[in-house]
## 1
Amino acid sequence: MNLCDAQSEVKLLLSKVKPSELHKLFNWIRTSDELDELLSDNRKVILRHISAELRAALPLDAMLPSESTAYCKMQQRSRPTVHVDSFLYDEDQVDSLCEEGIFSRSYCLTCGSYKTAPLDFISHSFSISELQFLFENVLPDLSGRLLVDVGSRLGAVLYGAHVFSSASQLVGVELSEEFVKLQNDIIRKYQLTDRIQVLHSDVCLQDTLLQNADVLIMNNVFEFFMEPREQVRAWRFIMENFRKKGSLLVTIPSLQESLSTIQQEVLQPSWVEELPVDYDVYLDRDTDPDALRQIHLYRVI
């Protein structure tokens, strides 16, 4: 059934519902888990299993003691900020942790008072819904393409690309030996080695890889993990080597926002053009529309 036929069927169905019952039906559509279960597929089930396994292997904030730069940068922000990995914890899971007193969404402005303010949450991973949106709505068919994830961390982009896309090669570049081992353990256990490879490397040593890449993914890659001078070096390297005409770049946040934080006029995103993204997509009730709007797509010109 195509979209036009489906719309006609829905209108016909709604015309048969008692007017007094319509609001109940709409409320059920908005809030019921039954529709999500009906629309769920095995691809998401696989990702949820991987997510659960990683949760059990990592501390609550999914950060390693070696990530001292990231810890310092989070502490330097104007408002208290905590890392909540979106691939590991969806909104329902965060709510449960808050109810159990393990986690909090707010902090006290004056110790001992009732005056509180919301904490800022930051994630260095895509959620499962965001991965589905990225590969089914943002990017085109990736058959025969090479996708590179810079700072692959837990491997969420690689797992998502494996189940949601037909890209022939998926390569993660990760500096942390611990995260590389974690990814390789998952890749072997879930038999994803046919298309996924993780390199323990600095992206600035991967000129040939970038020159051959068809898609480059960068999610909060440098801001929290490098000092400004290192960020400039990394961005320059990427701009010099990721030059294949027509290749696609996905960033969170936008290039303009990322580059503005290091205030380097010489780093202008003039080698790419931004492409429109349709954010008006329903995936499931847990999808955060604001998070989707942080995903930006560019094409090398």
## 2
Amino acid sequence: MVINASADSRRIQAASLTGRLSTRDNTKSIEYMTATSKFGILLIPADEKGCLFYLERYKPFRLASLKQDPGAFGSTYAREIEFDDKTWLDRVRNPLASTFVAVESDDDRVVASTSLIGPLPNTKPASNPYQAVIAIPHCDAPDSDNDNQHANNEPLCFQMSAVYTTPEVRGLGLAKSLIRAATDEAHQRAQGQGRPLVLSVVVYANNDAAISVYSRCGFASGAEEPKLVFNALKNESEKELIMYYRC
């Protein structure tokens, strides 16, 4: 069944994973799912329970995905299998990175994910947005979505990392649901500050399936032509396309 991740279908689930997790900043824990859906879309919080979920559920999914489909990622299995728990937890605790996952409702198994990175210091998308925000000290992250230090006409910039869905659940609408959940989050944060939103994603130019999914979710190619970018983590170059959300 295709999940409806629109704002109208957003509701609190008393049972299932959302009953055990509270989202970052102590906001309500929300699952994007219909009453009969087999899957839910969750934002992993940075609290104790969220960190445990990240290590026990998200980490195995991430490593299995890197191993199974290395061409879909900018990182490698060989690199991330060497991460200790602190390195993994630094990711979920980074206030500039929000990780959304699709989970099976009966066993909380992660089957798809994406991350929303930002707010970023400028509108220029990065090939690896997570690596870009690692360089920003956490103390420099905004303390509140009501931060008024910027002029209201200055855009709030976010970048979505590529969505990955395990092969056995592709075609069920999970990728679109993750994209919509992350897009909703970015919209809400920009609206909370009364600022325009700039939301981008970088995809491999030869990944027609991904480009099609993003296009159906409101993204369009920018003025830039695809360009060849060297990935030092993989020691190879790929043509990348920048797409922007049409607000």
## 3
Amino acid sequence: MNHCMIQSIDILGPSIRQGLLELSLYVLTDDDIRAYYQDGFVVVSGLLENYEMSSLVDAGESLATQHMEEGKLKDGNFQLHEFGPLFSQKPFRDVALRSKLPRAAAELLQLDSATQNLRVLKDVFLAKGHESKSSCGWHVDDQLFWPSSYQLPTTQPDQSGINAWIALDDMPITHGGSMAVSPGSHAEDYPWKSEALNALNFDDKLGNGISKDDLFELIQKGKIDSCGLEKVAPHVYDGIEINRWLFHKTTDVTESGKQALRSLLNSQDEDHSGAALFKRYSIRYVTGTTSLPGGFMTEMSVLHDEHNLAKELNEVSGGWYPKCWPSVDVDVDEEINHLTRNLLPVAQEKLGAIMAELMGLFKTS
């Protein structure tokens, strides 16, 4: 296994390697970068060391088992959906901050180590099983998964961000439950891209200044659904083959995949004594000058302190967006531990109140 998918959020410029690092420090080949420019993604083997991958797999298995034992597995797109595992689980944090992944992202974004840095905007652990009832269709990440503005790039190379996607289980195409991408759909002139983004309401009016009341009204009317391209523009959906701005989707678990998961669940394999799920870990890397949106959002840093709205990540204190390139702050673990103990619970309480309010709208509609 040990495959990482590096997914673009927009197309990059045509040049390759503009003196970002000493040659001996590169982790990607020229062929990797050319493929990324062309397709909007690249699959790279060996970016994680064996011990990193092993620790990550064990942490994922433990997290899935914990959710299963506590009765927290869902039956929607994903049976397990956990934002921010790097805050509470050291194996996730070490991979997100200290592996070769941030360096690879910096190479693809063509960052200058003298004037720029890279931060983790969001990370998420996801797991899909044989009881999952649905999948998220063709989409680009909304602000729940990618909490920054919807502004499309105006210069090249685009430095909007990188999504690093890591499979923690073998997910052959015959089993489903993995991710499909639409190669080249990150490009500005891709045939259906503009229409699809408009259909999904990916514009600055909604992405950078909408109020909570306006957002709730749109959700209540069914006009906000980042997974619902098929419903709002079926002719666009049907024209997609299979990249932020690379369109991607989750594939349904096939009958073969369901059988494999059931067999795993019934096995006596000590390595899989818990939940039988197809697990993956995803990390959104962006530059420190990336700004949070200015409108209502359920981002934890904003729920803790509303003054973080519209701030650049470099200006947000508290460890919410840890720096991972060109170096990691020496006190990052101490800062994250303080965040987890003292800041996160406040934000989680506010989120619970917002979600209860939102659910109340649906009950009365």
